[in-house]
What we know:
Its main location: cytoplasm. Helices cover 41% and strands 28% of the residues. It is an alpha+beta fold. The chain starts with a helix and ends with a helix. The model has no long low-confidence stretch (mean pLDDT 96).
Amino acid sequence: MQNEQLNAFLVDKADDMKAEGILTIDVQGKSSITDFMIICTGTSKRHVTSIAEHVAREAKLVGKEPFAIDGTEEGEWVIVDMGDSILHVMQQEQRELYQLEKLWG
């Protein structure tokens, strides 16, 4: 998958699970670990975890295995590392606290 296809896929699968405030940020040249960050919000710990697990499961079905998934135990901020894109699924409190949009935007 090309970057645009992967980003569209991740956004679509997060949207399937009713993720809120989905935003894609281009961090090429700003980050050495990824090219794009996709940030979205879940309404509870369970919702955040469910979004991340759904996205990871759907990615595996199309042959795009995530490199890592982290944060599912806490469910406040879960990261799905897809290599060129990283999906951040956060509860609203975490999103407001860390303000990734301002940091990387």
